[in-house]
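Schema walkthrough. Field components (list of strings):
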Amino acid sequence: MLDKQLAVALTDALASADMERVATLTADVNIPDLADFIAEIVLPGEEVDVLLTQTIERRAEVFGYLPLSLQEAIAPMMTAGQLSELVTHMPSDERADLFNVLDEVRKQQLFQRLAWEEREDIRRLASYEDGSAGAIMSSDYVWANVGMTVGEALDVIRRTAPDKETIYQVYVLDHTHQLMGVVSLRELIVAAGNVLVDDLMTTDIVSAFVNEEQREVARLISRYDLLALPIVDAAGKLVGIVTYDDAMDVQEAETTDDIHRGANISKLEVNFSDAKPLDLYRSRVHWLVILVFANIFTGAGIAYFEETIAAHIALLFFMPLLVASAGNAGSQSATLMVRGMATGDVTARDWGKLISKEIFVATALGLTMALAVMAVGYFRAGPDIALVVSLTMIIVVMVGSLIGMGLPLLLNKLNFDPATASTPLITTIADVSGVLIYFGIATVMLGLG
Amino acid sequence: MLDKQLAVALTDALASADMERVATLTADVNIPDLADFIAEIVLPGEEVDVLLTQTIERRAEVFGYLPLSLQEAIAPMMTAGQLSELVTHMPSDERADLFNVLDEVRKQQLFQRLAWEEREDIRRLASYEDGSAGAIMSSDYVWANVGMTVGEALDVIRRTAPDKETIYQVYVLDHTHQLMGVVSLRELIVAAGNVLVDDLMTTDIVSAFVNEEQREVARLISRYDLLALPIVDAAGKLVGIVTYDDAMDVQEAETTDDIHRGANISKLEVNFSDAKPLDLYRSRVHWLVILVFANIFTGAGIAYFEETIAAHIALLFFMPLLVASAGNAGSQSATLMVRGMATGDVTARDWGKLISKEIFVATALGLTMALAVMAVGYFRAGPDIALVVSLTMIIVVMVGSLIGMGLPLLLNKLNFDPATASTPLITTIADVSGVLIYFGIATVMLGLG
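Field assembly_structure (string):
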């Protein structure tokens, strides 16, 4: 967030097209803050003006921080020369992302101006599937050869540092580019110059394949406290690295997805505030409509017990509560399970233990709620119905909890992602069960008519 | 995760008390994997045996990776000498955490064996509030003095590196320990040895105060792609750093909290699989019981319309659906809002725009669902009720969505955390509104009795 005073001064300078003043004002601004300022510019074209006031290194960094949709909009406003200079200075992973959104004409123009090596790099990085390690990895890593001394490795690092994403992890490769070890700059710095890199490096390497899921890449980086995770191809050759900051972005995006999924919202490709109404509609309509059709079963359940209801209309006062309680208890235990499975906290080994714990907890919850509803029921509908309602409460909370716990386990056993379908499915099953159990018990205990 | 074969060999060696073999087998194992292995050990005391096979540096690291509850259980099994050696080698932040869980006797024993400086450090770090930056920061940072040359700074780094959490960010301090600038090891490495650190350092520093919330610290680290965030006291003096890996742990824990909150589960201090039944009960019972009492209003709503319902019992078939639809639409838009506000994507400036977009989306959703339910309603209950149900659907989806969007905004305006109360409150309000709107429309359109 830009300092308010600075933002005003900057807007003024921009309005009077005083680009020298813009350059002075922005020289020390943090990259993400400057990117935010540019993203807020209303007049098309001024984004480019501001970018051009920056050194080419800063310009490339700021550009990389802009939302991809804005990069796409700004790129055509630059000359082919400006764009290729910018692209040459961007980190390889951001460059590949930009290429994926450029139109064919621009792409060809750019390709002609880039060196062969850079072209190949872009083609390769742009070809990996969305959501895979390959799609976020960078090929700007520092590597040393097996057999080098620490002094030689430090020379390589000093020489190549300006183009690299990080220089704090050095990858040791053999002549076929096979990843043999990893050594940190920290270890190199404190070691004597004539020591062999081979004697310092760790050979127990944590790495991932190019087609690994990004969520798993982020998990590995977080678990092993890595600065960067080396990405290898099927032959074990190093093809790129994913840095911790990209992993943090993945974690944040996954969190948003997880939280949305808990409210039955499908994946949104963009931010909520940037999302088009149509995309928002699509992301939400899916489960809402499924709910309508799932209701056919609940409706049928109610219809089946029509006589009981007509005879004891006070039963209705508690129907929304009992149905909601079953669904709530179910979604609580499903959420605990699914999140536990996602963080690796819950493993197959634990299931027996967890299920017995859940039965205990659900019984306690059911009893507590039964007591609460007994009091409400007694005053509103008399002792008979209060008894029916509280007995039902115990059973629906237990059934809901067990469905909530069991379904993710079942989905997992069947090799489905337990997170995808759980909550809405569980709520629907719990709804139907709730209605059937409630009026079933009422029919038996109160008698027909 | 340890290789299966290795795990078996290790268990065998441990069973036959062959500690030399344990030492050989574990020498190259990754720290987190070894910690996991130790955490799974069943026989008390064997944890210490395995730890003692490691070098003191690795031992301290592995120990720091163990869950705090296990650290607490293992500590008394070590001699006072073993424990103080271990504690001396732990990173300062983990050391402070351990101290917080030790009993008084152990604490005093340890304090006597530690150097004055270490004692003061522990006392200071252990005194910060849970959830604050101070509670996760480390005092093992590298600093240089204003006026040093690059060569001098590199010498300091080399000399102090072994005890530091990270050496990749160097903090430049004046003689009062005031934070004047930050320079990266990368910049130092590529610069000439006689350049002044002052000429290289960034003075536009991103930092946080000791009492800042951890969530905000993680956000800053992620936004500015920092390796470590400097933490300063009210006077601007550097007191510690929070590293990116701690920020990733915070992010993960916050995600779990957010997701649990979405399912109305209160904060759990430990993992789901480690949680005691009583804690699980406590974390879940809260909202379930509130639900029971909120139901008094829904029940009263139904009671008010008893006559209408008795005359048109088919209306009941759709009650669970309409109530659920209002609640679902509401929790969808609340989730989008709350998450957008948490990630900083939605700001006060956007509200007008967002509300008009939401009205549009909600209308479209309501119309779609009305069409779906019209079909179901026609076949199950005839044209009159189908009309009532589909009209109700449009209105409840809109009302639900607007409550879901408006309530977080309102809570935010009133300076409450919008995430805390939203979902259950919204579901409850949507439930009551759903019932009232439904039977209200039915009474008007179908006539009384």
